[in-house]
Amino acid sequence: MIDISMRPAYLAPAALLLGWLVYQLSRPSKLPELPVLGLRKDEWFPTVRAAWRNTDEAVIIPLMTGTYVLLPASDTDFVVEAPGSQLSSHKQMNENFQLEHTVMDTELSLRPRQHQLIMTTLTSQAGNLIPEILDETAWNFDKYWGTDTKEWEEVPAFDTMRRIVGGVTNRVFVGPACRDEALMDASTKYALDVPIASILLRVLPNVLKPFLAPLIILSARLHTHQHYQALKPTIERRLKEFDARRADPEVAQSLGPEPNDWLQWSISQAKELGDPVLYSAKKLAHRVLFLNLPSIHTTSLAITGTLLDLVCHNKPEHIAELRTDITSVLAKNDDQWNKHSLAKMHKLDSTLRESVRSLTTVALSRKVTSPSGVTFPSGVHVPYGVTVMVPGHSVMHDKAIYGPDADEFKPFRFVDQGSESRKAFATTGKDFLSFGHGRYACPGRFFASTELKVILGHMLLNYDFQMETDRPPFKCFGLQRLPPRNKTIKIRRRENIE
Ligand code: HEM
Question: What's the ipTM?
Fold first, then answer.
């Protein structure tokens, strides 16, 4: 009697499987000749073992700007839960942006009072500010994308998005004063100065910093000063009116409704705390400028990524479906853009979430603050002062989590999941780390979500796009993924907006 495993019904598939395995392991790679993370050349099947190792083990990433430990995804929950006495997001942020050098008023980074204001007032007011956000969006699109309904216009994607986002965000920060060219110029340039200066500073050996740092931060210093000069008259008038309103109800009535923006909330907060240093014009201007740092670049990257995803995958039906999503919701809401109508534009929301999913390389960067270091559940021990992070891109493209089409751009992916399990753009999770997760997750994400939906919605309703077939890849710069700087697209103002 022959062994059961020797029967042809078992032997044939086993032989096929073996042949396929041998072919997979021996076929020439289509990939370029690049160093492979986790590869040990003297091993058998080195790439297979590197893949296994990278899923399960921590790896060290040496970069010009510092050496980091990338933990395995299984440590994510631990990193999310760890208190500041073990792992600090704030200390990491300070070091990443070299805030002690790049921010002229270091008190802002040491005592980040603005976090509370972002999480409470900015988040709760975002819905009420939609009319202002829409007004500024329309004004900026007219300015940077034009109003010509006849000719196609070629516009640089990232650069125009950066300016539009800068204008819209600063409308919420300082009100109509955001239309001052000098103010906007200083804010957007400062938001670029700091990341560039911080990269140079991190590359520099510590002994050279005292000598070279003043030179490296010259541009940030200049733009801080220009920003202050441009905003000073508005702040001084606001401070006077703030006191006058409280001193005399008749004056308050004659002045009309109090402004509802970041500057005004900062004045109120400073006055409540009663410390005159906090309500000096310089400090208040600096607080506005400082908030440009975490908001402009991130939001511009998100909208540029979404724009390129929609235009360069040659799927006009996606744009048509999004327009229907927006117009049908607006029709049922008296044509009003408000928090109720935005909340119902599920396809718009899903598109943003889908696009932003691809921007993150690594997530949850934290500095080890415990003097004795931290031992992670994976068993790796990381000493004091080292920066750790967890995988972002691989988790957010994991086929076991996002399905076999995880690598595709599917704008309605999150709508298709059904209303029960649908996740909104700003909802974080250990499988969606674009805004971080847990107690240190981005406090500005609900505002960013409102702003991005208005910008994207306005863009889709008001412009046509020449579709393209090749989505240009994002460029990797260290651990950052950046859209190609010089990429242009062709747009034309729509004549009949349904
Ligand atoms: C699409 C746009 C945005 C993205 C993708 C984004 C992403 C992030 C991420 C990944 C973090 C780190 C979270 C962590 O490590 O756990 C963060 C932190 C932060 N974000 Fe955002 N952000 C965006 C927009 C904004 C906006 C508009 C604001 C302000 C109005 C803002 C304010 C902040 C602040 C202040 C922090 C630091 C929090 C801390 O130190 O604890 N962000 N953001």
Answer: 0.99
